[in-house]
Automatic annotation (TrEMBL):
<dbReference type="GO" id="GO:0000976">
    <property type="term" value="F:transcription cis-regulatory region binding"/>
</dbReference>
<dbReference type="InterPro" id="IPR011006">
    <property type="entry name" value="CheY-like_superfamily"/>
</dbReference>
<feature type="domain" description="Response regulatory">
    <location>
        <begin position="23"/>
        <end position="136"/>
    </location>
</feature>
<dbReference type="GO" id="GO:0005829">
    <property type="term" value="C:cytosol"/>
</dbReference>
<feature type="modified residue" description="4-aspartylphosphate">
    <location>
        <position position="72"/>
    </location>
</feature>
<dbReference type="InterPro" id="IPR039420">
    <property type="entry name" value="WalR-like"/>
</dbReference>
<dbReference type="InterPro" id="IPR016032">
    <property type="entry name" value="Sig_transdc_resp-reg_C-effctor"/>
</dbReference>
<dbReference type="GO" id="GO:0000156">
    <property type="term" value="F:phosphorelay response regulator activity"/>
</dbReference>
<dbReference type="Pfam" id="PF00072">
    <property type="entry name" value="Response_reg"/>
</dbReference>
<dbReference type="GO" id="GO:0006355">
    <property type="term" value="P:regulation of DNA-templated transcription"/>
</dbReference>
<keyword id="KW-0902">Two-component regulatory system</keyword>
<protein>
    <submittedName>
        <fullName>DNA-binding response regulator, OmpR family, contains REC and winged-helix (WHTH) domain</fullName>
    </submittedName>
</protein>
<dbReference type="InterPro" id="IPR001789">
    <property type="entry name" value="Sig_transdc_resp-reg_receiver"/>
</dbReference>
<dbReference type="InterPro" id="IPR036388">
    <property type="entry name" value="WH-like_DNA-bd_sf"/>
</dbReference>
<keyword id="KW-0238">DNA-binding</keyword>
<keyword id="KW-0804">Transcription</keyword>
<keyword id="KW-0805">Transcription regulation</keyword>
Length: 252
């Protein structure tokens, strides 16, 4: 009687089983990798579909409306960058991008591609699953926050000219709205909640990504770059070798 199970109720459960029955689109041209990912994600209880080139990936994202996309950067036809842009332009969806090198991840962040997480090949399937679960949990939290009645919501945080509205999941700086991905938003809230306090990369990784393995700290650095690019470089200070601190903006 699986058909009778209310998957949306399960998907929004706040405990450790995010988005059972979620659909994950895999855009990857290497058959062995695509098949291995699909098998592993199916074993997790997710539905999967594989697209083998960029245009098929864009088409499948539009048709399937997946919960998340695993997207290889190097694809025949249009590449992963362009696929990411086209998918996000049609409907925001969390994207985990697979890159060939760490510096490629930095380059993608610099271009403002808008993926939520990055993994460099080769990666372990266990880590891929953990990252996807964390990604889906963040999306669930964002959905719950926007569905909460506004009278229960926390008032917006105002720090100088920065206004962070957690109920609406919106950020403004100097009156201008700044569009952040769910991951960028959670990272900003985490930093801004304790101004001038140094947060280690490991702590940020554990709190924001639900992922405690320090090997993923590069992901934190990449998302800090994205926040600086969008919000201004003055808000987040690097504490070399340790982590990052939110610096309240100085009044003009
Ligand atoms: Ca490829």
């Amino acid at each position: 009687m699986w058909d009778c199970v209310n998957m949306s109720a399960i998907a929004s459960r706040p405990d450790g089983a995010p988005s059972v029955g979620a659909t994950i689109l895999i855009v990857e041209d290497e058959p062995a990798i695509a098949t291995a990912i699909a098998q592993r994600l199916t074993a997790e209880g997710w539905r999967t579909e594989v697209a083998r080139d960029g245009l098929s990936g864009v088409e499948a994202a539009s048709r399937l409306r997946p919960s998340a996309v695993v997207l290889d950067v190097m694809l025949p036809g249009i590449d992963g960058l362009e696929v990411c842009r086209r998918i996000q332009a049609e409907r925001p969806v969390p994207i985990l991008m697979l890159t060939a090198r760490d510096d490629e991840t930095d380059m993608l962040i610099g271009l403002g591609v808008g993926a939520d997480d990055y993994m460099t090949k080769p990666f372990s399937m266990r880590e891929l699953v953990a990252r996807l679960k964390a990604l889906l949990r963040r999306v669930d939290r964002a959905a719950q926050a926007s569905a909460a009645p506004s009278n229960e919501a926390e008032p917006p945080m105002t720090i100088g000219d920065v206004v962070i509205d957690q109920a609406q999941r919106r950020v403004h700086r100097a009156g201008k709205e700044i569009h952040l991905t769910p991951t960028e938003f959670e990272l900003l809230v985490m930093l801004a909640s304790s101004p001038k306090t140094v947060q280690t990369r490991e702590r940020l990784l554990a709190e924001v990504w639900d992922w405690a393995d320090a090997s993923g700290t590069r992901t934190v650095d990449s998302h800090i770059k994205a926040l600086r690019r969008k919000l201004g470089a003055d808000l987040i200070r690097t504490v070399h070798g340790v982590g990052y601190a939110f610096e309240p903006p100085v009044a003009p």
